């Protein structure tokens, strides 16, 4: 039973959403250890301002 629970949890993919406070552009990327909501992100590809992490969530992979 324990192995089946671990297998299900291991299949989820965690993503981080970064949003630019200046232009509003959102970017989805793979979660990195140390990410947290309100943390400064990377430079915005559209306007060059520093982005903020606005959400972190997990998605189940597509069913095959």
Structure description:
The structure is a single chain. The model has no long low-confidence stretch (mean pLDDT 87). The protein is mainly beta and 64 residues long. It has one domain (2-59). The longest helix has 9 residues, at 2-10. It contains 1 helix and 4 strands; from the N terminus they run αββββ. It has a 4-stranded antiparallel sheet, with no helix packed on it. It has one helix at 2-10; strands at residues 13-19, 26-30, 40-43, 50-59.
Question: What is the fold's blueprint, element by element?
Answer:
Blueprint: H1 2-10, E1 13-19, E2 26-30, E3 40-43, E4 50-59
Antiparallel strand pairs: 1-2, 1-4, 3-4
Question: What is shown here, in short?
Answer:
The protein has 64 residues and is mainly beta. It is built from one helix and four strands. It has one domain.
Largest sheet: 4 strands, antiparallel
The helix tally amounts to 1
Approximately how much beta-strand content do the residues carry?
A: 35-45%
Helix/sheet category: mainly beta
Order of helices and strands: HEEEE
Quaternary structure? single chain
Low-confidence stretches: none
Gross geometry: elongated
The total number of structural domains is: 1
Number of strands: 4
- Percentage of residues in helical conformation: 10-25%
Q: What separation lies between the terminal Cα atoms?
A: 23 Å
**Average predicted confidence as pLDDT:** 87
Rg, Å, rounded: 15 Å
User: How do the strands line up in the largest sheet?
Assistant: 2-1-4-3
């Amino acid at each position: 039973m324990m192995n089946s629970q671990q297998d299900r949890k291991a299949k989820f993919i965690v993503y981080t959403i970064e949003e630019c406070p200046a232009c509003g552009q959102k970017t989805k990327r793979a979660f990195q250890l140390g990410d947290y909501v309100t943390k400064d992100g990377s430079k915005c590809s559209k306007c060059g301002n520093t982005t903020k992490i606005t959400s972190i969530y997990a998605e189940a992979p597509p069913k095959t």
